[in-house]
Amino acid sequence: MTHRETVFDKIIAGEIPCHRVYEDEHVLAFLDVGPLSRGHILVIPKERAAYLHQLSDASAAAIGRVLPRLCRAVLKATGAKAYNILQNNGTDAHQVVMHCHFHIIPKLGETGLGIGWRPTSLPTGDAEALLASLHAALEQDARG
Asked: What is the CATH number of the domain that holds 52?
């Protein structure tokens, strides 16, 4: 798999400065330079992967372990009572930097993430076919 260098690769390498919130062997978290609200941070794996589904289990687990801790820190530091976790995969899903990353965005009054939600319905027949496809994909993934 090829990975085009991104601004996040340069941040990880120390070529571009950032306001580091947290760092360990697998994860780096820093303040977003274009925040939606005060305390908006980015959480990135140090592993080079454009999309969440491309991450190794080790990197995914490392992010999963640190996200709750970072959320607690953001809430405490900002006084926010609510927040969003945002993670986009692909340009059609509004991903701009092609390096897997998570946003922790505190909701402070009118600042933060605004979402338009347009639910549809799940037809019963489609649900059964979709379940069968999902189960087959999970079994195939488990086999490697």
From this structure: 3.30.428.10
> What is the number of structural domains in the chain?
1
pTM score of the predicted model = 0.89
pLDDT tens sequence for the chain (144 residues) = 567 899 999 999 999 999 999 999 999 999 999 999 999 999 999 999 999 999 999 999 999 999 999 999 999 999 999 999 999 999 999 999 999 999 999 999 999 999 888 889 988 889 989 999 999 999 998 998
Identify whether 127 is part of a domain.
no
Spatial distance between the Cα atoms of 39 and 32, rounded to a whole number of angstroms: 8
Q: Is residue 2 part of a domain?
A: no
Residue 101, Cβ density class (10 Å: 0-12 exposed, 13-18 middle, ≥19 buried): buried
In a domain, 79, yes or no: yes
101 in active site: yes
User: Across the strands, what pairs with 83?
Assistant: 106
* Cα–Cα distance for residue pair 87/51, rounded to 1 Å: 9
DSSP letter, residue 29:
E
Catalytic one among 26, 40, 99, 101? 101
